Known about the structure:
Amidase signature (AS) enzymes; 11 strands; binds glutamine
Amino acid sequence: MSLIHKSAAELGSLIGSGEVSAVEVAQAHLDRITEVDGKLHAFLHVGAESAIEQAQAIDDRIAAGDDLGPLAGVPIAHKDVFTTIDMPTTAGSKILQGWRPPYDATVTRRLRAAGLVILGKTNLDEFAMGSSTENSAYGVTRNPWDLSRVPGGSSGGSSAAVAGYAAPLSTGTDTGGSIRQPASVTGIVGMKPTYGGSSRYGLIAFASSLDTPGPFARNVLDAALLHEAFSGHDPMDSTSIDAPVPGVVEAARQGDVAGLRIGVVKEFAGEGYQPGVLARFQESVELLESLGAKIVEVSCPSFTTALPAYYLIAPSECSSNLARFDAMRYGLRVGDDGTRSAEEVMALTRAAGFGPEVKRRIMLGTYALSSGYYDAYYGQAQKVRTLIARDFEAAFHQVDVLVSPTTPTTAFPIGERADDPIAMYLADLCTIPANLAGNAAISVPCGLADEDGLPVGLQIMAPVLGDDRCYRVGAAVERALEERWGGGLLSKAPTL
Ligand code: GLN
């Protein structure tokens, strides 16, 4: 098996024991990027030289007898919405073109501290607004399973990089589904930790009460190792939870569901769901039952109102967060020829620098927050948010985790939803409740849809700070399906 096909855990142990060098591993992935990224466009920036330098530093420390962690020397692709002091950071937007952040995000800093080798920065929908990466100002990313289809979004560069074997691990952010949905449609694992469980410091803000950094990997244990490496309390983030990180690695190793009560969310089925998605979901539920879980149907009636509430709350927060791009402080500045006022330069810069979806959100949010409409829109949406949290609470009195399909369909063709915002928004129908309530939720591959042979994801939702349960159940499903398939789902993917 070549180096690029190995798991992060395997690579970490091979590097740690000196059987392979971190430089060899980094080089193998850089070669893979050269080979496939012309087709995928997963990366906005590849730092080949710096990756080799980082890897060499790890090799030197290992040679000196330092005891580094389980991921030391393992390559990673980093979503281009986290600040990096040594690489450009664009958030997929023209407005940040040429900007060099003066500091590392906490997540970036912790990746470095764990000895991970950052290969480069991955493509995303502009400011993480979207479900396909088609909203990136720097071109669309393609799905390794079918190059005519989207890799999901907003973290589509990160999902494509891992599914395309350009990196064993990557980072993402999930505000309404941007880790779980891309993981689902590319056949990999993606986890949204409990809100506040991973730091937002240095993450370019979209909707601050929802934004959550999380890991992508090709298997559950790798995702847990990365989760553990970068999460945990950060005094630089005022909403960071000051509590120990749940035992995610142990849970991923344990991977059994005997005696667990698993709730099937009644509302997430029916019209609008692809038959092949529902079929694989149904099989997963039966599989969990055969593994000893007790299956209970659970009703969460307010989950059906999560999508409209999200599309008031997220744009409202975005309209406020994106006000800082004023043409003076960061990146792009248009029309500053000495004849124009600051207001004119700001208007010209924002008109040229933001793409259509970002402008739509700023307008929606500004409207929802304006006096006279605030209570009817923003205030109402906040009440819905409370109802959703209560539905979760009631459900978790009955069951240990909730399951649903991650997203109603498999990867859709590039262009299909580009001019239809509502169709695009529906990709996050099942993922948004966990964001609004702050819960932990994971997507794990559960098979291929019969109609198109494309990956389907199973979503497992757990209570706040119950992240370990997501890994425990996810690992059980993964193990059982691997036995059934004789390998991971990605072994079924067409080779690039
Ligand atoms: N697709 C959703 C949106 O466009 C969620 C994005 C995200 O989680 N960053 O807002």
